[in-house]
Amino acid sequence: MDKSFLIFREYITHSNDFSSEELDLILSKMEHKRVPKKTHLLSIGEICDFEAFVLKGIGISYFIHENGSKVILSFASESWWLSDIESFHRHTPSKMCIETIEEMELLCLSHKDKEELLQSIPKLERMYRLMLQNHIVNYQQRLLANIAYSGKERYQAFIEKYPDVMQRVPQHLIASYLGITAEFLSRIRADKN
Q: Strand, coil or helix: what is 18?
């Protein structure tokens, strides 16, 4: 098995004990994709037809502010998932974009294949429940940070949560995620050094 697939195998077996046959079935339903950097995986108005597990690289989800700027909603690097959950599950037009920042290697799962897997392997529901719980916790922490934390505190929380992202993502995208200007982020980083 390819080393990158071992990342996924480790991820899904962390919370469940799947048999070799179940793991093979899960992997058989996932499409392995290599995607160049600066590729749009989803645009506003499209229906998201994938949930992607990141084997390699970094992607972002964002929306476009009325002034035309990108407002970064999330980063997804190795062992994270990348999707528009609302669009994927409700089959509604997306209100966000998903784009690759680096060349990415993904395992993509369609809605149809996901439902078939959940029917065939009921214990896969546990993995998805835990994944969604973590997702909700992350968004709740982000919401609280945006309301209650200063820019410096949001930056500190960011580097603790995404230690590898700082060196791999342009500073203006990190500033957008934190809700501060790139200039203010530069000052915060200079004060840290």
A: coil
pLDDT number for residue 135: 85
* pLDDT at position 13: 84
CATH class of segment(s) 3-121: mainly beta
For 131-144, letters b (16+ CB in 10 Å) and e give: beeeeeeeeeebee
Residues 109 and 118 sit within 8 Å (Cβ to Cβ) = no
Provide the 8-state DSSP code for 17: -
Structure-token pair, residue 11:
């991820």
Q: Which amino acid is at 162?
A: Y
Q: Tell me the whole-structure pTM to 2 decimals.
A: 0.90
- Nearest Cα neighbor of 104 from 159, 38, 12, 44 is 38
Question: CA neighbours within 13 Å on the CB side: how many for 63?
Answer: 9
